Amino acid sequence: MTVAAGIGYALVALGPSLSLFVSVISRKPFLILTVLSSTLLWLVSLIILSGLWRPFLPLKANVWWPYALLVVTSVCFQEGLRFLFWKVYKRLEDVLDSFADRISRPRLFLTDKLQIALAGGLGHGVAHAVFFCLSLLTPAFGPATFYVERCSKVPFFLISAIIALAFVTIHTFSMVIAFEGYAKGNRVDQVIVPVIHLAAGMLTLVNFASEGCVIGVPLLYLVASLTLVHCGKMVWQRLLETRNQSSASR
Amino acid sequence: MDSSSILDSLGVEIIGVMAPVSICMFLVVLLTYSLSVTSDPQIRTAANLIYIENPSDSATVKLEGSLLNAIVFVVLVAAVTFILVLLFYYNFTNFLKHYMRFSAFFVLGTMGGAIFLSIIQHFSIPVDSVTCFILLFNFTILGTLSVFAGGIPIVVRQCYMVVMGIVVAAWFTKLPEWTTWFILVALALYDLVAVLAPGGPLKLLVELASSRDEELPAMVYEARPTVSSGNQGRNRGSSLRALVGGAAGGVSDSGSVELQAVRNHDANQLGRGNSHNLDYNAVEVRDIDNVDGHGNEDRDVVERSPVVAISSEHSTAVGTRGNIEDRDTVMDEEMSPLVELMGWGDNREEPRGLEESDNVVDISNRGIKLGLGDFIFYSVLVGRAAMYDLMTVYACYLAIISGLGCTLILLAVYNRALPALPISIMLGVVFYFLTRLLMEPFVVGMTTNLMMF
What we know:
Chain B: Its main location: endoplasmic reticulum. Chain B: Keywords: Endoplasmic reticulum, Golgi apparatus, Hydrolase, Membrane, Notch signaling pathway, Protease, Transmembrane, Transmembrane helix. The complex is a heterodimer. Chain A contains seven helices and no strands. By secondary structure, chain A is mainly alpha-helical. In chain A, α1 (about 5-25) packs antiparallel against α4 (about 110-130), α2 runs antiparallel to α3 and α4 packs antiparallel against α5 (about 155-185). In chain B, α1 crosses α5, α2 (about 60-90) runs parallel beside α7 (about 200-210) and α6 packs across α7. The chains are: A mainly alpha, B alpha+beta. At the A-B interface, α2, α3, α4, α5 and α6 of A face α1, α8, α10 and α11 of B.
């Protein structure tokens, strides 16, 4: 509606990630590089997906199952890429550890690995927010606003910013869960991440119904807070474990 | 934690270069959006010599015309670079330095002034003309001083490099669309040839400069990582090189060339031309880069490697608008579309006291230099993407940053001057067209239905 409103919408979607970036990630240059490379990976995956789906677009606006198919294929593809990302990260971890040995510095701590996973997740989240929310915000800086008929109570920009915020949270913390799950071979963690992603994607399909966003968005936030809680519990347990280990070994 | 992790300082040099590039691109995008000056097709510049683009022409006409424009532009740039090589070869270094100061003054004064004036007009800032003139004059003079004089803090010089990049890039974005894309691609190819091919002008410049142990008068952005004294300064600068070397399967450690310290020439060569753009960072440096733990006494000195500072001239002809139509003011700027590691190969000049076993005091600067031309053309690409959509801006930004990262890694591996334009520009162009054609309908179709993943 004005510049202030436009900036407000942008901050709704990206505010927490900005504060996360400034407080945690900007301290260590390597984490900034991790954020950039994971954003690039997400962008590439999006381009590939849109290349695959281009012949079928534009989809008809009143049938919901092509969209469901779209969401399912996209989520599967991105989860596959997340596994690939993990593989690359494993190799990078080995390189970093051998480098640390060579210059006689300590190897990567657990907090380092968690921070790298967080940075990776943040990259995905920021990419999602930028491509799905911010890029459409340009008209919001002008004098008017826009409503979608499916969700007519809230301006389109605001609702897309709110949804983007939920997704940013989901992406950021599910990367931490996923990395720890792959590292420990923990089946529960490995499976829960694609499930969460798919569930979140499917929940946005609820928005297809008229006034569906009244139900869809709170449920989405439920999923996001579940992700947060699970990630927090997992990280806390791991930190306690490591501290007990190191104090036991002394 | 009692001992710090390696993650604290890894990658500082890369961020030191990427941060100003990002700031430059961001400000150019802001300028493009807020001023939103449409490209005026009536200006005839060096980039428009053959064909002035008209939006109503057919595609083939535009294609041919833009291609011709791009070729002519590249030929002009190559010609001016050869002139620069000749001047440098015949030791006209002082002339070059004065010329560069003049061009900095001109760029900041006129082009920068025009941008300031349009900002003031656009936002209706209440300022009178006398104040404006005085402020602009001060700003320009400080910028001119910071280009080559010693004693100016490095931060000021870095800021002015970025500002000059912004000003020139903002002017370049006024070019018409097809011409811009063709010029970008043509310049990327030219850069590749000029730096790597045996007869290329920039390669000749590099070799001349390193054979004479002189620094080229060039407008480059130097990223100086802060090297603190004591143990912490030890492994910082070399981490990139050692990391890449290790990852690449073992760089030969003995006598290997690492990221190194620059010797400050002024103290030793009183007869030479004085101005060069090295600051004094007196740092107590113990054995930097003692990667293999050899601990040899003579390895207390950081190993150097041949330096490469490049400058090339890009002639930018900009016509002044307003009442002086069609006047070409050819403006040359030395910009270097190159990136290189700093370090001077001068094992011949033994510095005093550097062979002492410990408490080595060295005047050392380490870092990566990126030419101003790179800033400008990256920002032009992103600015042109900004004229379409924010999605393309972000995609091009990521493409350019990743291209820059690849170039820096290649720099650490090969350790010689490398062209910084080709990879980034090619990736940027590819991502722009892919985003515009493929991603846009996909994403917009989904989000307007509030469907995301």
